[in-house]
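With this grant's support, we have paired protein sequences with backbone structure tokens. One protein thus recorded is set out beneath this paragraph:

_____
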Amino acid sequence: MQTLFDILQSANDLLWSYIVITMLVGCALLFTFRSRGIQFRLLTDMFRVMADKPVGKQQTGGPDDQGDETKATTKTGANEELERLKKIGSFQAFAVSLSSRVGTGNLAGVASAIFVGGPGAVFWMWMMALLGAATAFVEATLAQLYKKRGQDSFYGGPAYYMQQGLHRKWMGVLFAILITITFGMANQIVQSNTLCDALADSSGISVKWIGAALTLATLIIIFGGIRRISHFASIAVPFMAIGYVAIAIVVILLNITEIPAMIMLIIKSAFGLDAAAGGALGMAVMQGVKRGLFSNEAGEGSAPNAAAIAHTSHPVKQGLLQALGVFADTLVVCSCTAFIILLSGIYDSGRDGIILTKYALEAHIGELGGLFITLAIFLFAYSTIIANYFYGETNIRFITSKKRYIQLFRIVTGMTVMAGSLMTLQEAWIFVDLAMGVMTLVNLVAILQLSPQVMSLLHNYLTQRKQGLDPVFHRRMMPEVEKDIECWE
């Protein structure tokens, strides 16, 4: 077994050292340049979309609304279907994607990045978030453009824009298989492992019993379908994120005089200037990019599956919301964890993962910190397990419509959650890094080719916005791809 882990680790080093990092940074820079920094100049729009407020004067005759009395009469059934699909709004879709982003990557992932790559890894996580938000914008906008109608919600994602936009179903099937393995299995191992370790450390209960309880709780939710998933996420995610940020602010205020020294430590370590860092510059960059991607998922191809389920008036709006999600995840929540660990003074104690985060917070506020981390990791990891399952189900539906395969996947998800509770954290990361790297490459190749369509949509959005209007999109506005778009009548 150890030989297998060594082989997989060698493959990871090759994949991440040269290929994935180059593609991620290259795409992030390209999309930032071509959109003229969309992730920075439309911040106000992002918050207005999140609050479900128009960004200009509302127009009559929105998407899927024919605007013609005769057509409306003949398409009553279609309009009734649309009203049913409108039940999942932009914020709920945002919450589903955020529940996947804001998970153990923010607590255990950041801790592991610091443990392996030093404090400088935090700097490179920040850089990837600032640039990667443009990549998140592109992939989420494409997911909205090529979304489809399901029984109780819209659905879509990379597999669908590969099939509809690139006309390469084989590529869509390949991605669907990869994301199902990555999120339905590999990522679930890390989430389960982290949650069970935290609960076992706090309670003294065996991880196998905690794993069994977690498996049961997961099956109860996922057998309820996407409406139950989106409802759960829209409640749990804001609660857990706000609570965690609040306690991090308390820690920062208690250590306010140490902030300048901490920032200098991060910067020096990021560029290999700190004496303690030695020659670890490459490790800091690699860990920052890998754990940053695991946390914010920009370019990975996962969040677009959640972005596609929303009803919104223009694809760009959901793209902007997903870009905001990258900022919220890395610049806010990941930074909270990094500050808690680095200000504790025990970041080089030899502890790793969630245990490092737990003891760092205890160093600041005592046992209460350990109890809070236990609760936070439960909410973070559990909601991420649920969202990860949804990504897998969406892509299984792309491959086959037979319900028995969905039921089988739900059972496999439960088995994977149980298995994750029994593995070590570093073993879990090996599987995640390999699966995540291959999946990310396939998605980046696709969005590079489809990005001109996103820039066309962005131009359409900005044109309407300059006219003082709340942008509305109809597929006839893009005649070159109209026949490939199912929604947006």
